[in-house]
Structure formats: structure tokens, C-alpha cells
Amino acid sequence: MACGWQKVAFVALCAWLALAKPTAEKKNRVHPDEPLSEKKHDDEQSFDYDHEAFLGAETAKTFDQLSPEESKERLGKIVEKIDSDGDGLVTQDEMTMWIKHTQRRWVYEDVDRQWTGHDIDGDGSVSWEEYRNATYGFLAEEAQGGEEDGFNYKQMLGRDERRFKAADVDGDGQASKEEFTAFLHPEEFEHMKDIIVTETMEDIDKNGDGFIDLNEYIGDMYNQAGESEEPEWVKTERQQFTDFRDTNKDGKMDKEETMAWILPSDYDHAEAEARHLIYESDSDKDGKLSKEEILDKHDLFVGSQATNFGEALTRHDEF
Where in the cell is it found (predicted)? Predict the structure, then answer.
């Protein structure tokens, strides 16, 4: 009988398989750089967007319940964490890294949930053998080459092993916590972009020619079974493929064109917010923020129980 972590792995595997099956609904393979908050970014109305960008949505709610004194005190401790080189100044790069860390918090929480079940021997790393046995051990027969409901478990095993090796940057066969994070959430790591593109093309490229043609592109997101006419969004996607996806106009997408489609990199929300926070708080205009400068503008970074936005604007105008 499967133990607890095996059941969790089985559920995760079944979910992955369900997502891999063709559906009549539009499938979205794009990994955009998402906005940092669902709140409107308008500092003339409120600093809610900045609070959620800087702290993360849940932590921002916690700060809203604190007294102004405690909120400011906790902000001071956060500043010390952001200043990674300990020189007393927060650079744009340090601010960007902090914002990205807060936005990825759910990723780290997911990794924490899975870590114990895969680090079987408790040595602080996950080997490929540990991951394979934890995920595929109870599907040994299928993973050795069986096929069930159209899915080849041996193929899935090989795909996971390839991704594991890509995440294992030092090549020691052991995934550290950071490497395991890259394995589970490759979209969050620059060095994993190639493997995301490769996996996507393998999913869509049905004729195995190493490219994605128009029929494969549409077929991945739309199954016409039972429908006499294509929905308008499908027609739009056909036009998108011709006008924007297939940039060299050869009738198909290669690896570079696929990467531009699924991993758009035209805007970095975290970097833009870091520039904004520094610009608004940098009283001596040296391009960096001291702890004092951040605390002077604490209402921009964090909220509190007694924050009155009108008063906050007045105080900011005095600087």
C-alpha cells in the first residue's frame, strides 16, 4: 500500500496527466511576467500596489493590522535583509531581488511541502534516485515501459530525469533546495528556459520534425470534436500565429520563436517597481536607499492600522 508521500506524488502525477490530455478549452502555455498586485498602481490614490509588491499580498494585509510603530520597526528589519552585502545601502538590484523573492513565496512554500517527502534519507539534498523512487516507485511496471490511457510512463520518467539534470547545475546528482526548486518550477529560473521550450515543443510537435506548424499550434489549444464551427478566439489565434508567432514567415515556429511566445521578456515588473520605490524615496539622489530614507517614506513601503493616506501624502510632500 502506498505511504503518504506516495499518494501525494500519485495525485500530482494524475493532475499532470490530466493537463496533458487534449481538451476543448483554450490551453495557455505562456509564462508571462505577471503584475505584482491586482491593485491599481496609482500613488495619487493609494500605495496599496506598492505595499503588495514590496511585501506580497498576504504579508501586506498583516502589516495593515499593525500599529504604526510596530509596522515601522518591522520595516527596518526587512531593510536589513534586503541589504544583502551589508553596506548600509539598498541598490536597485537588491530591491529587485527582494521583490522577486516576495512574489515567489508561494513557490518556496510549495517546495517546502514536497521536500520532506523526497529527501528520504534526510541528508539535506534530493538525489535523482530518491525523486524517481518517490514519484515512480509505485508505478514501477508502467515506468519501465508500460503505457496506460495513451501515456508512456517510461517517456515521462526520461523527461523528468532530463529536467532534473538541467536543474542540477553542479552536476553532482544531488539537488539542493534551490536546484529542487528549479526542477519543480523551471519557469522561475533563467537557466531552465531551454528545458521549458524543449518540453513545450515536444508536447505540441506531433509529427516530430522539430518545429510547431499552424495545425499543431491550434490543435494543442483547441479540439474541434463536436463543434461545427471554430470559435472566434481560434480564428484570432490562427492570425496571431501568422502575424506574430512565425516571425521568419516559414510556416512554422522554431525554438527561438517558441521561446519568444511562451517566455515573453518585454517587461520586468519587479525591476520597474524597484526603480519606482528608489526614485520616490531617494532624497539625496545617489541612486541607492539608506535605511533612514526608507523609513522616512515608510508609508510607501508598508501600511499600518493608523495610516491615513491624505496625511501620508502631506508628509511626503514635506520632504
Answer: Endoplasmic reticulum membrane; Golgi apparatus; Melanosome; Sarcoplasmic reticulum lumen
pLDDT digits (tens, 9 = 90+) for 77-117: 999 999 999 999 999 999 999 999 998 888 888 999 999 88
Q: How far apart are CA 309 and CA 299, in angstroms?
A: 8
Distance CA 281, CA 298 (A): 9
Cα separations in angstroms, 125 against 5, 93, 154, 160, 175: 17, 29, 24, 17, 5
| DSSP 8-state symbol, 35 | -
**Residue 203 near residue 220, CB atoms below 8 Å:** yes
Q: Cell 515556429 sits at which residue?
A: 253
Beta bridge partners of 175: 126
pLDDT band at 136 (very low <50, low <70, confident <90, very high): confident
DSSP three-state, residue 185:
coil
Residues 6+ apart with CB under 8 A from 89: 83, 288, 289, 290
At residue 111, what is the residue type? V
Count of CB atoms within 10 A of residue 189's CB?
18
Q: In this prediction, what percent of the chain has a pLDDT beyond 70? A: 82
Helix (H) or strand (E) holding 152: strand 151-152
Burial state string for 248-279 with b = 16 or more CB within 10 A and e = fewer than 16: eeeebbeeebbbbbbbeeeeebbbbbbebbbe
